[in-house]
Amino acid sequence: MTRRIAFLLVPGVHLLDLAGPAQVFGTAGAFGYPYELHYVAERELVPSAQGLPLQAGTVWPELGPDDLLIVPGWLVPDPPAVTPLPLFDPASLDALRAHHAAGGTVASVCAGAEALAAAGLLDGRRCTTHHDLQDDLAHRYPRAQVVRDVLFTTDDRVVTSAGIASGIDLALHLVAGHHGPAAAAQVARDMVVYARRNGHEPQSSAMLRHRSHLDDTVHRVQDLIDARFAEPLPLSVLAAAGGVSERTLTRAFARATTGLTPLRYQQTLRVERAELLIGHGATIEAAAREVGFDDARMLRRLRSRTTSDG
């Protein structure tokens, strides 16, 4: 199923706020995860904050519950105006509200949170924005629950990010949610980016945290573990996939991942997937079976070890 991603652009849009998420979804599309990107504005020609004019459509694509509407940030005066000029006409704010009401996801990068707030979508919800804009957002929209110093937040299909490069983290998080963390890791690796961990959200996974190295052999083995982490994967099978001996793989893996063995990496993926399932209502027994454990005892032990390590 193709997912439509609609970017709502305003004059003064920051190029990286737009290009970062667009690159993530575009790269995911190149790997066979179907995304269709649309760019919408109230006028066809949109000047960017960096001086490059952008061409956008003025007619909204038809969006369904599985689609995403995202508002990149724009250049904000320093200090922000006490009463900022309205950047969106009522029709655009209605489109944001209607998409969310129909079951769709809305997102923002940096100052784009202003649009979600103006549409009433941040009322009573956790959100964030660029650190320079957090106080202003909290002051003007007191019903918004502004979370400080995090990369992004998610709350009831409303996703907000801190700004600039964090839009990439947000988009990788959404790709992981749609297609699994292996897909996000594949995109992150191709883009040569390292998706940082959000202190308040279980951001995408160890697949991203332990993919910042440059060892192609270890990456090949991680590709296999990422795709089949719920299956038994003997060290001999992993070493054969990497084209090296078991001893060489163990040493290279530990060096590339700061001390992890292939088994510990696989267990970490299993635990993180189980935590996601439990967070969505699964019992610990059901989650354990889903990620490849015979029963819940091993999962309980590994969860306890993860908590004590953290």
TrEMBL record:
Presence of keyword Transcription: yes
Name of the molecule in the record: Transcriptional regulator GlxA family, contains an amidase domain and an AraC-type DNA-binding HTH domain
InterPro entries associated with the record: Class_I_gatase-like, DJ-1/PfpI, Homeodomain-like_sf, HTH_AraC, INH-QAR
Domain spans labelled HTH araC/xylS-type: 219-310
Gene3D superfamilies associated with the record: 3.40.50.880, Homeodomain-like
Molecular functions (GO terms): DNA-binding transcription factor activity; sequence-specific DNA binding
Keywords linked to the UniProt accession: DNA-binding, Transcription, Transcription regulation
